Amino acid sequence: MVDRFGHAADEKPAKPPPPGRPFSATTRQENLDRLAGDTFDLLVIGGGITGAAIARDAAMRGMRTALVEKGDFASGTSGRSSRLIHGGIRYLEYYQFKLVFEACCERRAMRRVAPRLVRPLPFLYPLYRQQKPAPWKLRLGLTLYDALGLFRNVQRHRWLDRSEVGKREPAVAQRGLLGAARFYDAQTDDARLTLTTAKSAHLHGAIIVNHVSAVDLMVGEGRVVGACLVDRLDDREIEARARVVVNATGVWGDKIRAMGETSPEAMLRPTKGAHLVVQREKLCSDHAVVFDSPRDGRHVFLIPWGEFALVGTTDTDFAGDLDNPAANADDVAYLLDAASYAFPNAQIGRPDVISTFAGLRPLAKAPGGTYRISREHIIAESGSGLITILGGKLTTHRLMAEQVVDRVQERVGPDVPPGTERGCRTQETLEGAQTWRSLACTLGGTIEQHLLRTYGSDAVWVLAYAEENPTLAERIVPGLPYLMAEVVYGVHHEMAVTLNDVLMRRTHVIYETRSGGVERARAVARLMASRLEWDASEINRQVSDYTAQVALTQAWRGAHGGPRTKDDDVDRALP
Ligand SMILES: Cc1cc2nc3c(=O)[nH]c(=O)nc-3n(C[C@H](O)[C@H](O)[C@H](O)COP(=O)(O)OP(=O)(O)OC[C@H]3O[C@@H](n4cnc5c(N)ncnc54)[C@H](O)[C@@H]3O)c2cc1C
């Protein structure tokens, strides 16, 4: 038996949940009915960071808004990034001053509105004899970077001499080392930032559903008037009507455009970026470190992530299955070569790779047919009125959304009920992304700290589940801080409706254990089954879908320990 907030009788939290409809699996069902019954001002297709931010901005302006996502929130590129909120120092090499300025402003805005989710991260950029750029050039670039951040970043950059670098990051190669520049950017949990943004849109009244695909656009009198949808959990077909439809589907963008027009010219060229997850203590302590690949001189990053570190990324053309990109053996060899070169004493090798993941960059085609090397976004409107947004970065999602919703508002503005029409307010706050200092003092242990970082003030709900039912206080996987209570919280408050949603994005179990946690998949699926009414065959299906995702994280092992990826034969290095 579950109450109206979705809590089972035996696990009701001590305090009542926040007012309003929970962002739950039950609400998802209600939202499906609303999608079929209402006409919206705006229908957003795609629940990555871009679509979620557009839905949030529009709902905050008083528009009747809906969003559909064919997988889970952030199941596309937004859950497979380097997790940085950064000004993009490397774009200075291409004189992209406007792009860097915008990104620095957005970095500041995100730190202000979402301090729990966007945290400062110090970077170290070591320089070596006979390596480009020359130290004076790097320092000039970083002074410009500070200036484009209006000198309001955490700290201005500093130059560390060789011995200071050795003290702070002893694993960094010392031979030929001249010193290092130290500067700040910021770090986020990309999947959680996307989820929090979608949840905020919901709080402002948007109708949000995951696992619903747009399979066709509805066109009336030459204009797009909605989309035909399919619920991927039960094959239900729905027609959703809206005055404006926005295509925020990232690398799938051309597929949606093709639904609205006959053979539109492709606007996208996806490239793949792979990351390795390794144990942090072997390579770095406090800093993210920037270093060059010895193969082609590209920048590679080592980014601390709790007990782990991410090494990435690659940048290769991609023509494989958009739904299942994976690191292949070449990607792993490339990144291990670069890491070995930069951290020679760490002797990092294949056995150190805990897991991998890969995402696809939705690179937009520039006018004239060449592809943009930078991550600038473009907003295009087709003859039938479909608005498509492509490219951009996690960092600039709020600004991108503001620009898209300004356009939408031009089209729906006069018909929005008087008094509800407002300007963009997304710079003010992001609900659920604040830090809670008072709680931070009360909750001292490692698990509590993990819960606080992940859920903010909602950590108390997760703890309440765990306190009232001891089996929910167990860890999902030994050695990682995630609790079984988070599975229940995910279903009732974060619209988690598949095992992949929980183990890949509400938690990162899949990336943080060598086994991907498959040995616990069935226990987690059973717990979800008790809330979502899955039968035995559904549990089996969920476990098998998850096992397939785990196989993708290990696919690079190929003949040495796993299947090769579908794109092994089609990847080639970008010029
Ligand atoms: C390897 C890599 C590292 C990166 N690192 C950074 C970084 O550190 N910092 C940064 O600022 N940026 C980074 N980026 C860029 C950033 O991740 C992307 O720009 C951003 O995530 C794109 O978000 P999106 O919402 O546009 O696309 P996506 O996240 O891909 O979202 C599109 C969504 O549309 C859904 N969809 C597709 N078709 C349909 C349909 N028919 N019906 C319904 N839904 C549909 C998909 O399932 C998907 O979830 C990185 C990118 C890559 C590839």
The total domain count is 3
The secondary structure category is: alpha+beta
Helix percent band: 25-40%
Morphology: globular
Bound molecule types: flavin-adenine dinucleotide
Q: Any idea what the CATH architecture of the largest domain is?
A: 2-Layer Sandwich
Please count the beta strands (DSSP E, at least 2 residues each): 19
CATH superfamily of the largest domain: D-Amino Acid Oxidase, subunit A, domain 2
User: Roughly how many Å apart are the termini?
Assistant: 59 Å
Helices, by number, come to 17
Poorly predicted residue ranges: 1-17, 560-575
Would you tell me the overall average pLDDT?
89
> Mind telling me the C-alpha Rg?
23 Å
Beta fraction: 15-25%
CATH topology of the largest domain: D-Amino Acid Oxidase, Chain A, domain 2
CATH class of the largest domain: Alpha Beta
Major sheet characteristics: 11 strands, mixed
Please give the structural blueprint:
Blueprint: H1 25-37, E1 39-45, H2 49-60, E2 65-68, E3 84-85, H3 97-113, E4 119-128, H4 135-148, E5 158-161, H5 162-168, E6 177-187, H6 190-203, E7 207-209, E8 212-220, E9 223-231, E10 237-247, H7 253-260, E11 268-279, E12 288-292, E13 299-305, E14 308-312, E15 316-317, H8 329-342, E16 355-364, E17 377-381, E18 387-391, H9 397-412, H10 437-442, H11 446-455, H12 459-468, H13 484-493, H14 499-506, H15 509-512, H16 518-532, H17 536-553, E19 572-573
Parallel strand pairs: 1-2, 1-10, 2-7, 4-12, 10-18
Antiparallel strand pairs: 3-6, 4-6, 5-6, 8-9, 9-10, 11-14, 11-15, 11-16, 12-13, 13-14, 15-19, 17-18
Helix pairs in contact: 2-6, 2-9, 11-12, 12-13, 13-16, 16-17
The chain binds flavin-adenine dinucleotide.
